[in-house]
Amino acid sequence: MAVKLFVGGLSWGTDDRTLKSKFEEFGNVEDAVVIRDRDTGRSRGFGFVTYSSNEEAEAAIQGLNDNELDGRTIKGELHIPTSSINSIAIY
């Protein structure tokens, strides 16, 4: 099952290819995308990386948190879609 990571703290100059290349050190990256402003096309400073397995995603979180990419300290965490949060029942 595919596992998506949120990656924050990206440099404005980091592109999809650089993000994917860095995260491939920890496993098979299915997708890597830097989120861009739809009006200006500039990076918004965060992105998402999708791995094939939970083990690869966990290895990336452990290996890359608080490390540098393009001169900025990055932070990764498991991505939980808003739709999943809204469906959680709290008693």
TrEMBL record:
GO MF terms held by the record: RNA binding
Keywords attached to this entry: RNA-binding
Residue span(s) of domain RRM: 3-81
InterPro entries: Nucleotide-bd_a/b_plait_sf, RBD_domain_sf, RRM2_NsCP33-like, RRM_dom, SLIRP/GR-RBP-like
SUPFAM superfamilies: RNA-binding domain, RBD (SSF54928)
Pfam families assigned to the protein according to its UniProt record, in alphabetical order: RRM_1
Top-level taxon in the UniProt lineage: Eukaryota
Keyword RNA-binding on entry: yes
Protein's recorded name: 4508_t:CDS:1
